[in-house]
Every structure is written in C-alpha cells, then in structure tokens.
Amino acid sequence: MSSLCEQARAGAGLDQAELERLLGVAREAAVAGGRQLRSHFGRLEQVRQKGAAGNLVTEADLAAEAAVLAVLEQRTPGLAVLAEESGRREGNGELQWCVDPLDGTTNYAHGFPVFATSVGLCWRGLPLLGALELPVLEEHYWAAPGQGAWCNGRRLQVTACDRLDDALLATGFSYDRTERRDNNYAEFAWFTHRTHGVRRAGAAAVDLAFVAAGRVDGYWERGLAPWDLAAGVVLVEEAGGQVCAYDGGSLDLSAGRVIACGSGLRQPLIEGLARCRPLRGASYGAPELDDDGCGADAP
User: Fold this and answer.
1) Mean pLDDT of the chain
2) Between the CA of residue 217 and those of 46, 145, 157, 269, what are the distances in Å?
3) Phi, psi (degrees; rounded to nearest 5) at 104
4) C-beta of residue 177 within 8 angstroms of C-beta of residue 164
C-alpha cells in the first residue's frame, strides 16, 4: 500500500516541478517562522492562556504565524490555510497548508529549547509535504514524496528496531489530560515498563521528526490537531517509517491519534495500546497502577 504522501501526490496530480516549488515554499515559510521564534526566545513580554488549562499563546506564536502566512500568501495566494492561531482561510482547489507557528509553546515559555515551526501541505486531508524549523537546535527538516526526508543536508532513516525491550519511545499528553480518563497515563506507564524508556519532549512535530531521524524508535499520542501532524507524518514516511491510527488503520489527521515508527515496531505498539485502560484513582492527576503497570481494567 502506498504511503499517505504518495496517495496525496497522485490525487493532487502534481508534476515534479510544482512539487518542488511547493516544497520550497514550505521550507521558506518554516525558516521565516523559526527566525521569529529565535528573535523572541528568552525575551517574552506576555504569556497568556487560551482554552484548556496549560494551553498557552505568546507574542512569539503570533509573530511566527504572521511571518509564515506572509510567505504563503505571497508564493501561493490561492491555497487554503489552516493555522493554529488564526484558524481556517478558504482557498481554491483541494490543497491546504497546515501551520503550527510554534509547536511546543509551553517549552518555549519556560525557556526549554525544544520547539519548532511546522508547515505542512495536505491534499483532501492527506499530508503531502512539509518542513520544520528548530531554531535553537539549528535543525531544518523537510520531506516530500519520492524525495526522501532530510535534516541539514543529511538524509534521514528510521531505525530497524523491532522489539519493545530494545526501543526508546516518545509520547505526549494533551491539554485535556486532567479532564478525562483517556489521558495517555496508562499507556505511558505500560510502555515505560517494557522499553528503554519513553521521552516526553512536549512538541508533537519534533517527536515525529526525531522518529524520522532515528533518535527515537517509535511515537504515539492522542489529542493532536492536523497542524501538529501534517509535516511530521511526511518526514516519517519518507524516512522509511510507517504511520497509522491506534488500531492499525489508516491515519486520519482530524482524529488526532497517531502511531509512528519503523515497520518492526508497528504491531507491538498497536498491541500495547490495545491492552491499556484508564488508570484507576480518585483524581486524574493521581493515578494508581496495578502490578502490570496498567489500569485497573487492563487484561
């Protein structure tokens, strides 16, 4: 079965020249956003909350998004845009930019140097190509179907790890984690007990880039938005990895649940996630584990 980005390219009917042009736009836009993040880093004047507790926005988010959108408007004026801060802008055709100007805002606000500007392009909701800029780490990632995944001129490849007990994984926790039992705590505990460890960097696009780069062997998370996923999914696929839904089905960006890994870890991750049930406990913030490291109802 062809990858999501290959399906998107076939559906969009893009020739090589147009694919490369759009990839160049994504890269230029990501760099423009990252430049704003670097200039504001450590110099924030205002951090405010939007929506759920812990969901932050800063002047850096807004400045980076403005810089990204300016590039997209100049270079692709007719295309639709879905951006985290300003929402949806309608356009012509079936291509849509998905923009996260600052993936990892909480990290950024605290001076933790793991964050990125993510710019992905989708066709009918399928990720087609994308670019990420990690300004503090000075890393620029990009990928498109048939062109591979790259970081600073180095071609990326997912790991060949096929055993959980040899794996280093990554995950994250949604802003609604204190409001629902399905909050990823049980999954985190289950995989932590069976792997070399589970890292929680706090930026989904960066986690996906690190899977593509072979820094972690696999990643899962729930509660994500299309702008969190679009660019990173292409990176993983073009680095030889696989992405899917929790049940192993085809990934739907709007569903917000993703598994990303090399082919050997796909089934172990699917099976592990299927075993987990919400942790028991009087409050979501104080879970209890049974002897298996799972929730009370886990088999």
Assistant:
1) 90
2) 37, 22, 11, 11
3) 110, 40
4) no
Domains of the chain: 4-155 (3.30.540.10), 164-275 (3.40.190.80)
Residue 18, token pair as written in the block: 């147009």
The gap from C-alpha 158 to its chain's centroid, in whole angstroms, comes to: 15
What mean pLDDT is predicted for residues 142-161? 97
CB 206 within 8 Å of CB 104: yes
Span of 21-30, 152-161, 208-217, 289-298 with lowest mean pLDDT = 289-298
Query: Which burial class, exposed, middle or buried, applies to 174 when counting CB atoms under 10 A from its CB (0-12, 13-18, 19+)?
Result: buried
How does residue 2 score in pLDDT terms, banded at 50, 70 and 90? confident
Count helices and strands (H / E) in the chain. 8, 15
When comparing pLDDT for 297 and 111, which is higher? 111
Which one, of 221, 164, 220, 173, lies nearest residue 196 by Cα? 164
**Closest to 68 in 3D by CA, of 49, 85, 50:** 85
pLDDT level of residue 54 (50, 70, 90 thresholds):
low
Distances (CA, A) of 271 to 163, 267, 276: 12, 6, 9
The torsion defined by the Cα of 186, 226, 55 and 31, in degrees rounded to 10, comes to: 120
Q: How far apart are CA 99 and CA 5, in angstroms?
A: 17
Please say whether the beta carbons of 139 and 151 come within 8 A.
yes
Q: What is the pTM of this model?
A: 0.90
Q: How far apart are CA 196 and CA 194, in angstroms?
A: 7
